[in-house]
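so im writing up the methods section and need the Aspartyl/glutamyl-tRNA(Asn/Gln) amidotransferase subunit B record in one place, dumping it here so i stop losing it
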Amino acid sequence: MTTTALPTYEDAIARFEPVIGLETHVELGTQTKMFCGCRTEFGAEPNTQVCPVCLALPGALPVANRAGIEATIRIGLALNCDIATWCRMARKNYFYPDMPKNFQTSQYDEPLCAEGYVDVEYEGKPYRIGIERVHLEEDTGKSLHVGGATGRIQGATESLVDYNRAGIPLVEIVTKPVPGLGALAPEIAKAYVTELRDIIRSLGVSDVRMEQGSLRCDVNTSLNKPGEEWGTRTETKNVNSLRSVERAVRSEIIRQASLLDEGTRIIQETRHFHEDRGDTSPGRSKETATDYRYFPEPDLVPIAPDPAWVAELKAALPERPSSKRARLREDWGISEIDMQSVANAGAVELIEETIAAGASPAGARKWWMGELARRANETGIDLADIGATPLQVAELQKLVDAGKLNDKLARAVLEGVVAGEGDPAAVMAARGLEVVNDEGALTAAVDEAIAANPDIAAKIREGKVAAAGALVGAVMKTTRGQADAKTVRDLILARLS
Ligand SMILES: [Zn+2]
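--- predicted struct ---
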């Protein structure tokens, strides 16, 4: 532990130039594992989604899952990569308790996709991040350390292994080193992972949830003095939120600057990021490729995608999320920041479909980003699975526009829709939630309110129109919120003028 005070970020970045690199693992959402027919459902009972192949029992032979290969190629194409016409899987040999084969089936010098790039935008400026490779491999199982306070191996009384995840297809996306970002390195790293997540989500090949580990990020950072060679890099693991990507780069720049100031050499090692403290601690010293004794996988045939098939996949790629967002932002008339929160909430397609079903952009956005987003946050359920469809939200908005529901009643109807009580019109009828438009009933309620509040009525007669609010409130109360506030106000003013 060093006792020297750490430099500030501004101080560190004024004297050193950072070079960053990102390695991102994406768990594919295929129905079955990469080399066997086991299911891949998240959160299943431990060791219920396993078979002789993914448990590596003697004699079991793998067969590649076409859906995994297709998804990897689509990711490669979306990242502007060249797709290999012929390549092989490789064995990456190392021992780990949660890896039953004692090797990982991965790719080494023959990745399926290589030499691409991703364009990201930060504060209106474009940055091109080079992609070195996109390759296919399999995930490991999961170790659980129990009996201790922290869930870590230190202090645990026993360790259990769950092999459900072992063999789920994993795509690793490796950037080229990115120099020249200066003080913006942390922000651009975050912008890159955000863009990558959006692109992969648009392809529908993974749910890319960082908190569930279906998108995991390792961040490489090194520092050098201007004009000097690149420094030794460290690899920060366990970065499992977008915000943490930014924080991990920043904290590593500060830490390395402090060591370099002391004249200490940076060691090539992995480091663990701690969400709570926002800094890193050392992991293992980094293995080099030779430590893994890679060799071509003899149990699997080479992958030789037909160029015509690849061309078909390329032609069928969806619109790039960033261009789609720019187009929709214009159509909907909203700011960049509002569009970003829509994207972060996973609401772009939902709002788009709601508008297609007849709602106004403002109306569609109001329900998805208001009431429904709040509910999604509270319950931890995805907005898309919240229980209301774009069609239903469009119908709700139409009822509001037609004056049949006011804002408060519409919320109650939406609650019924989410609870599975049916479409908005049905919920409205069943719960008796329609706005009272019956002039006679409203006039009676208005007269009653005037009679009960003579002082307020007198003020309004004297021209103090603002006082009408209290009477509107009284009428809304007697009609149990089912009146249209503006109509009530108009009636009161007409009565007292
Ligand atoms: Zn299996």
